[in-house]
Write a structure and sequence with these properties.
alpha+beta
Length: 231
């Protein structure tokens, strides 16, 4: 649990109470399976999906809405730390970022006015391109790395099955652990559907669009500038 975007903050949540879930199960989901087994299987199922979309709050990044694929591609939006929102397109070779007006304004607010004016003109509507391996992309890479994102959920100790609930119209079982609350689909494949942790690195992520096609369109060259060439 040492990645920049740790999926599991070492905290104790108040179990199913955070979801308003009380009472007993009407029938036991995954009979005979311990909570840890159910949680591990849910991660295996999600990692085996061709694509999924995660949305919600991610530690250090604010609001995110990203679709990721098994091919290492990623697209969506991220709430920028400096302000505003960034559109993201990531391929195996490059990361493309395009800020909205609020982000561009935040990025240029401390520049001399003449430089700021020119920078806003140059950046408006255009994508900044960087190599996917650029160290400055470490945080984004962690979010777009499906294996790195999910691997830390394996073998969590003290996982216990809780109440049945619904999320996004799907029936799910609550898995309560000392490190967070997880929702696992009970119908069809046992996909992990939701993660909620607290503490210094809180997360509140929902996984949807599982196995749905994701079209990642690389921005046209005329709409792109390279970060290295533009400082």
């Amino acid at each position: 649990m040492h990645t920049a975007h740790r999926l599991l903050a070492a905290v104790a949540l108040s179990g199913a109470a955070s979801f308003g879930l009380t009472g007993c199960l009407s029938s036991e989901p995954f009979p005979g399976q311990l909570g840890t087994r159910v949680l591990n299987d849910s991660v295996t199922a999600l990692r085996g999906a061709s694509t999924f979309t995660m949305s919600g709050k991610a530690s250090g990044q604010g609001q995110v809405n990203l679709s990721v694929s098994s091919a290492g591609e990623c697209k969506g939006t991220i709430e920028a730390r400096a302000g505003g929102t960034l559109e993201v397109v990531r391929t195996r070779q490059y990361t493309f970022l395009r800020g909205d007006d609020a982000h561009i304004l935040a990025q240029t607010k401390d520049m001399p006015e003449d430089q700021a004016t020119q920078a806003r003109k140059d950046m408006s509507g255009r994508w900044m391109r960087m190599k996917a391996t650029d160290p400055s992309m470490k945080g984004l890479t962690s979010l777009c790395d499906r294996d790195g994102l999910l691997k830390e959920i394996y073998s969590i100790q003290g996982a216990e099955k809780g109440a049945l609930t619904k999320t996004g119209g799907q029936e799910a079982v609550t898995i309560n652990t000392p490190e967070g609350v997880f929702l696992v689909a009970t119908k069809g494949e046992p996909f992990l559907l939701k993660v909620t942790t607290s503490g210094p690195n809180p997360l509140d992520l929902t996984f949807t669009g599982i196995n749905q096609p994701v079209q990642v369109d690389v921005p046209a060259d005329k709409d792109v500038y390279d970060a290295d060439a533009n400082g």
